[in-house]
Amino acid sequence: MELRVIDFGRVSALRSQTLWHAIAYGVSEGAPPTLSFMTPATPYVSIGLHVNIDAVDVNACKRAGLPVFRRMVGGGPVYLDDDQLFFQITLPDSMAPAMRSRAVRVLLNPVVAAFQQIGIDAELDDANEIVVGDRKICGHAAGQIGSAVVVVGNLITGFNHDAAASIASTPNRAAAGMFRQMLERYVTAVDADPRAFMEAAVATYTEALSSLQGEQAGDVSYVRGRPPFGEPDAGDPLASLTPYELEKLEELDRKLADPTFIRGESRRTRAPWRIKVKSGVWVYGHANESATAVLGLVDDVITEVTLVGAGRDTEKLIGELVGSGLPHAADRIAREGHMGATIAQLVEAMT
Q1: Which residues pair with 136 in a beta bridge?
Q2: Domain definitions of the chain by residue range
Q3: Res 221 pLDDT > 90
Q4: 302 or 79: whose pLDDT is higher?
Q5: 5: pLDDT confidence band, cut at 50, 70 and 90?
Q6: I want to staple 4 with a disulfide (CB 3.0 to 4.6 A). Which of 12, 61, 161, 223 is the partner?
Q7: Predicted confidence band at 261 (pLDDT cuts at 50, 70, 90)?
Q8: Per-residue pLDDT, 242
C-alpha cells in the first residue's frame, strides 16, 4: 500500500485551502491516497460550498482584516488561525464506504486513535463529532471532489472564542451573546504537540487504509519532495505534487479567491435564524415587532433561553421552556401573550 504524506508547514491562508483541493483533483486522476498537513500563517474565515454568504458577517470580517474563502466541501462558516494544525485524508472513492456517514466515521476513527496515542481522551460520538466528554476538540468537513473522497479537520491547540463568534451573522445582540456563550461551553482546545499528532496520524492512517485495501500494513511511501514533520533540511513540499496537481493549484488559487465564487449562489434565507455550535448543539432566534426569543438546544432539548420584551412573564416563560423538547414547547407556551406567540412561532418553525 502506498500512502503519500506531505507536511506543507506554514502556508498562506489561501494556500491552506487550495493545496488540499489540488490534491483531491490529483487523487481523482490517479495520485496515491494522501495524508497532508498544514497551518495557515494568518487568520481567515472558511465557508462551506452550499452555505449562504449571509451566514458570515462580512463587514465584521473586513474590519478585522479576515479574508473569507469558500471551500468545495460542506459545513458552515468557521474561524481558522495558526493555533490550528489542518489535516486532510484524500483517497479514491472506490476505497471508501458508499454510505457517506459510514465513510466519514471510518476516516475519522484514525484521527481519534491518533489523539488517544498522544494522551488525549478523545472519542467519536454518535453524530461523528470528535469530542472529549461533550466538548468538540476537532472540527471536520467531508466531501467528494471528482472521484476522490476527502475528509478535512484540525488539531486545535488554541481557540479564540471571541473571534470565532464575531464572524457569524447574528440577528441581534441576544443571539450573538448566546452563540458566544455556547461556543465557549462546547468547543475547546487541547494541550497537544502537533508533531506528535502528525506522527501518530501517519501510523493510524497507514493501518486504516491498508485495511480498506485488504492489504497488510507496510511502510509509508514518501513520494518525491519533503520528508514528513518539517525537518530543517526538508525540501520544497510542492515537489511532492504531480504536474497535474500543480496545474490545478494555480487554477484553484484564482478560483477560491474569486469574489463571485466566494459570494456563491443567491439562496433563500432559512427562517428562523439558526447557527450550529457543534453536532446536536444549535442556537435559534426569532423576533417580531414586540418580542425577541433566542433558544439554545442540545439534542433537541432547550437548555438556554434569552427573552427580550417578555415583561413580567420572563421567569415563567423561561421555566416553561428550559428542559422542554421541541414537540412540546410550542403547546406549553403559545397562550403566554406576545412573547409566548413569538416563541411559539420560533418553535413551530424549528419543528
Answers
A1: 131, 187
A2: 4-263, 280-350
A3: no
A4: 79
A5: very high
A6: 223
A7: very high
A8: 95
Q: How far apart are CA 105 and CA 96, in angstroms?
A: 10
Instruction: Could you please state the CATH topology (level 3) that the domain comprising 4-263 is classified under.
Output: BirA Bifunctional Protein; domain 2 (3.30.930)
Query: 280-350 belongs to which CATH class?
Result: alpha beta
Distances (CA, A) of 41 to 13, 141, 230: 6, 21, 15
Query: Tens of pLDDT along 299-309?
Result: 888 899 888 77
Residue ranges of E strands in the chain: 4-11, 34-40, 44-47, 68-70, 78-80, 84-92, 123-124, 130-132, 135-138, 140-145, 148-156, 273-278, 281-287, 292-298, 301-308
Q: How far apart are CA 328 and CA 219, in angstroms?
A: 56
> For 97-221, where are the E strands, in sequence order?
123-124, 130-132, 135-138, 140-145, 148-156
ω before 43 within 30° of 0 (cis)? no
CB-count burial class (<10 Å; 0-12, 13-18, 19+) for 42: middle
C-alpha cell read off for 315: 421567569
pLDDT reported for residue 107:
95
